[in-house]
Amino acid sequence: MRFISLLLLCFVVKLSAAQPQFETGAGQVQRYLPLLAGKRVGLLVNQTSLVAEQHLVDVLLANKVNVVGIFAPEHGFRGDHDAGAAVNSGTDSKTGLPLWSMYGANKQPSAQQMQQLDLVIFDIQDVGVRYYTYISSMHYMMQAAAEHGVGMLILDRPNPNGAYVDGPLLDLAFQSFVGMHPIPLLHGMTVGELARMIKGEGWISNADKLQLSVIPMTGYRRDMPYALPVKPSPNLPDAQAVALYPSLGFFEATPLSVGRGTAFAFKVIGYDKFGPAGFSFTPVSTPGAALTPPLMDKTLYGEDLRQVPANGLDLQYLQRWHALFKQHNEVFFTAPAFMDKLAGTDKLRLQIEQGLSEQAIRASWHNDLQRFKQQRQPYLLYP
């Protein structure tokens, strides 16, 4: 009996050694600090850039790293700006460091900013959806780094939608800040893997000149659940909203509300003129949704998805509401050009307007997804 117990103990020890404890790239401080010695460092970070409960900026300053400035993406350095709100340059009140906007009029760093740097660190929690703009900011930073001979270091983080590769591939004719790369809506990659692919596929100019490094996570699998310690933007409050975001983000091109201005953004769908009976809500101006949320101060009727399982991209919401609008002779895609940018193609909008089944729509992008899975294979870092 004692012999069996010892065998079991040895098995558990070996199993633990084979499965390293999970840690983000940012959490492995001693692994990247040597890369920063003697370097003038810029940071593309926001409120999600944490090492345990401490911000990466504070960790680096405590370790005497020469941090020259902070680049702020959409929603700002502190993550408190509305979606689409301009992010202004200025000074961080806590550290006194320059804040340089990467959203609004200036989506790419200036030559003057880049000339002050030897290395830029990107450490932002993404959600794995192509139209979520943090990866677009990463693209522009990689482009600037390649042009100015500045190194780029990605501190990798999980993709909470990493188990899915789904949706139409972006057609470069529809390229915009909500879709920069010929990848599916759900690409199933971490920011570190995607950065490797952007460089490897030459999706930026002078890609071969970019000195790119990635600090991979330890103990990570792309299908593992990951509870985000900080909400990645004001209107993605929790894991359920993040899981529904690939399906509900398209509603930004319609007159409907997805709950901006409520405590359950991206977990509901509603309209003031008609909708399913039994559930209603009223959007109001709130922090993070102060720029007149759709249908503000009106009672909306619709769907409560807070307890509905969400797994990747679900087209039924778009199809169901489009059919309802058609019954009432109302225009569903009130911003068709924006819908096409979100989808990365005009085909999805046209397919929904034509009343194609979900099965037929999915069949139309099946081959593209298979090719993409093969194309991304050399850049993957995790099982």
Topology, please?
Blueprint: H1 2-18, H2 29-36, E1 40-45, E2 50-51, E3 54-55, H3 56-62, E4 66-72, E5 90-91, E6 98-101, H4 111-114, E7 119-123, H5 134-148, E8 151-155, E9 166-169, E10 184-186, H6 191-200, E11 212-215, H7 239-248, E12 268-271, E13 280-281, E14 300-304, H8 316-327, H9 336-343, H10 347-353, H11 358-376
Parallel strand pairs: 1-4, 1-7, 4-6, 7-8, 8-11
Antiparallel strand pairs: 2-3, 5-6, 9-10, 12-14, 13-14
Keywords: Signal
InterPro entries: NamZ (IPR008302), NamZ_C (IPR048503), NamZ_N (IPR048502)
Protein name: DUF1343 domain-containing protein
Question: How would you describe this structure to a colleague?
Answer:
This is DUF1343 domain-containing protein. 31% of the residues lie in helices and 14% in strands. It is an alpha/beta fold and 383 residues long. It has 2 domains: 29-226, Rossmann fold (3-Layer(aba) Sandwich), CATH 3.40.50.12170; 239-374, Aspartate Aminotransferase, domain 1 (Alpha-Beta Complex), CATH 3.90.1150. The strands form 4 sheets. A 7-stranded mixed sheet has the order 5-6-4-1-7-8-11, with helices on both faces. It has a 3-stranded antiparallel sheet with strand order 12-14-13, with no helix packed on it. α5 (134-148) links the parallel β7 (119-123) and β8. α5 crosses α6. It starts with a helix and ends in a 7-residue tail after the last helix.
